[in-house]
């Protein structure tokens, strides 16, 4: 018997340290040190079956035997090398010790030789995934003469019940972890959607309700409740878009396709883009729920509308510009038969129109500042803009027609000043005075062009095309006028331009 004991101990140690067994054990019960009251009925049943004062439901790793449920003791664990249960695990069957004081494996065990002076042990292994991970066992200070086979069979059934309970609790724990992870993921997704201002919603078709996140409720300008009637949600859509939206949703449901549509909100007029599809159907194929998302595309829609208006304005401007260019070309040709002179005069006027168009384009064909127009038209004709152009002005904004017409006027005045007037000499300069005044309830620009420091001026004997262009460039603007005075000290132009 002593020889048998020496050969069994290494086998027991190897069994306790088995990687497969420990893997199953720790996967099923991550925290073995915690007692579990759910196993107490099994411990009490085992104690009753053997009329034993001590009963345990234990789990055994390579170092400790952990007590998950106890009867008749306050201990919570025992060293594995003092454990009777380690042998029950090793044998993978019911393990019986009638008198430990006579047993070669246990007579020197501390719990046998000293208090509590254990003598009797009966244990059955708890088996998970083919690995013994613990026992249901009973102990007594009194030895037994014999144990009925049916008792051991019943003890094994109790151990099997403990294994089933461990498996159920492990599955419940794993399911709870998955649900917790899913809940955290759903919370992260919900927070991300809300932060990105993306509305999410689920339409329960039979119940007639729509559940949505905070972003969706804000977009529809509905109460912050998570679930509302479908009628109130559809009622938030602009009446002009409601029918088409509902029709698209029904079409997507019938064809099992994705819904994709834009609509406005009745109260705010904001544009929303909605996308979604049927989430599930009943056994007959009828749609039960419809899942979707909504984003605010008001800015994009405004941009599209602005682009359309700009293209419309551009088409209008192109037509006007072509008509103006034809007129300029004809009038310029009438004034000269020299091709080179024609090209110089025509190119300058074309450039003046181009500069005005460039400014207007920069401001999306809205309004431009008078100072910018003056700078664009006069800088090509002066060597030192700050010294040769003096401006006294109010802040004045010009529309497209005013900018193009006034640009041509300034170009012609500057061209004449370079040829004959103040800009033909180094010390000459242009003084511009611009004032916005109210006349008959409307704003009017009074702009005075005065040439200073140039050669003496004589009024021309005949009016050339430049003079005609100065007077007629603002013809399209009702109430405008240009009056040029050839004073000896320098040319003066008085411009009146309704704004």
Question: How does this model look, in words?
Answer:
GO terms for molecular function: ATP binding; protein histidine kinase activity. Pfam families: GAF, HWE_HK, PAS_3. Its EC number is 2.7.13.3. By secondary structure, the protein is α+β, with helices and mostly antiparallel strands. It folds into 3 domains: 8-171, 2-Layer Sandwich (Beta-Lactamase), CATH 3.30.450.40; 196-299, PAS domain (Beta-Lactamase, 2-Layer Sandwich), CATH 3.30.450.20; 335-496, Heat Shock Protein 90 (2-Layer Sandwich). The chain is 45% helix and 26% strand. It contains 15 helices and 19 strands. The chain has helices at residues 2-16, 19-28, 40-50, 85-91, 110-113, 149-195, 214-219, 230-235, 239-255, 298-335, 339-362, 370-378, 385-388, 400-419, 465-472, and strands spanning 54-60, 64-71, 77-79, 95-97, 120-128, 131-140, 198-204, 209-212, 227-229, 259-264, 271-281, 287-296, 368-369, 389-393, 397-398, 429-439, 442-452, 481-487, 490-498. Strands 3-2-1-6-5-4 form a 6-stranded antiparallel beta sheet, with helices on both faces. α1 packs across α4 (85-91), α11 (339-362) runs antiparallel to α12 (370-378) and α11 packs antiparallel against α14 (400-419). 31% of the residues are buried.
